[in-house]
Amino acid sequence: MNTRVQLILFVLLLSACVQSEKKAELGSELTFVDLFNSTLSADVACYRIPAITKASNGDLFAAIDERVPSCDDLRSNPDINIVARRSSDNGATWSDIESIVDFPLGQSASDPSLIVDASTGELFLFYNYMDHGSEPDVYYLHVVRSVDNGKSWSDPEEITSQITPSEWHNDFKFITSGRGIQTHKGRLLHTLVNLDNGLHLFGSDDHGKTWSLMDTPIEPGDESKIVELADGSWMINSRVNGSGLRYVHTSTDEGKTWESNPDSTLIDPGCNGSIIRYTSIEEGRDKNRLLFSNAKTSDSRENMTVRVSYDEGQTWTDGKTIYSGSSAYSSLIVLENDEIGLFFEKDNYQENVFVRFSLDWLTDGTDKIEKTGM
Question: Rounded to two decimals, what is the model's pTM?
Fold first, then answer.
């Protein structure tokens, strides 16, 4: 064999090895960090309803229900508290569990959700409240605030009368767990549900000093997430029980009117999901994507999957399975190093895990580059 042929074979072999190493790296097993595990505590029956955000200083803040006597929801559980953990290194290590909201026995706080005001740095944590002793089956809506990135918190503030009409007093109503958003105009936006009157938006135009309801019902919709699109319009992605898929609602007039359609590609068992925008600057080019996570089946809570959209939610990739087993509620976050973090319920709510991965891993290294900036 002549020298030239040997050189060609060597180059081909080297290229194959490099590609093999890259494929192995992209397909390597993910590491799950179990942040809240009820089997490790004799005093807590269940942790549920994960919510995660990135504070203004870059710290991760993960909140969840601490359900003491049972795994039951707010309506039938007299002792639920909100607890949290924080990370200052993109989720590599975490603080001990910290109590955020803990009322006396008989009063419960449930379904945490988070918004960070980028202008002020203030972190808002919303939850639903019930006093089982004095007003069973009556839902109140609360918020607490942190001005030091989740290290300390204000006293609870009831905002029920600001964001719901008085005739809703006895209705089954709740703020959606997970995340709200801040628009490019600075408005804080979040979703709440009245099972008798539809999905609604509420928000604040004064950095959370006051809150108000946008009294335009959006149907069908249960627990939902909102995202602002590149053209400034709003899109809500909704859980709809019994449909086997997600519904998408879009508004081009800041919530005055809505167009609602099922998305046959986003199958869903009737479970809370997560949708966020992924933006980064890589090699001088903007990457601007939407990410969506849910239990990707039509009839069972399993197969936690993350998908990517390159066209503002009109179409989605098939996605990548993060965990094929039992999995339910999830909450996405983009980390300081441009990796993606996912906080989700695993193995019949026994574990609540955090996992991180790169966009290249998520797309098998085939992610597209394009400019669609906000």
Answer: 0.90
Check whether the bond before 220 is cis (ω within 30° of 0).
Answer: yes
Judge if 108 and 72 occupy the same domain. yes
In three-state secondary structure terms, 276 is strand
Nearest to 199 by CA among 172, 221, 168: 221
Count the Cβ atoms, other than its own, within 10 Å of residue 244: 15
Distances (CA, A) of 140 to 137, 242, 276: 10, 27, 27
Using DSSP bridges, classify how beta strands 212-218 and 224-228 pair: parallel, antiparallel or unpaired: unpaired
Residues identified as active-site: 72, 223, 329
**111: in domain:** yes
Mean pLDDT over residues 24-48, rounded?
83
Structural domain contains residue 370:
no
* Same domain assignment for residues 170 and 287: yes
157 and 12 both lie in a single domain: no
CA-CA distance, 204 to 189, in Å (whole number)? 7
Give per-residue pLDDT as tens, 157-195.
999 999 999 999 999 999 999 999 999 999 999 999 999
Residue 169 lies in a domain: yes
CA end-to-end distance (rounded Å), the chain:
58
Give the domain extent around 158.
31-362
CATH code of 242's domain: 2.120.10.10
Report the run of H or E that residue 246 belongs to, with start and end: strand 245-251
How far, in Å, are 23, 229, 365, 373 from residue 28 at the CA level?
8, 33, 13, 32
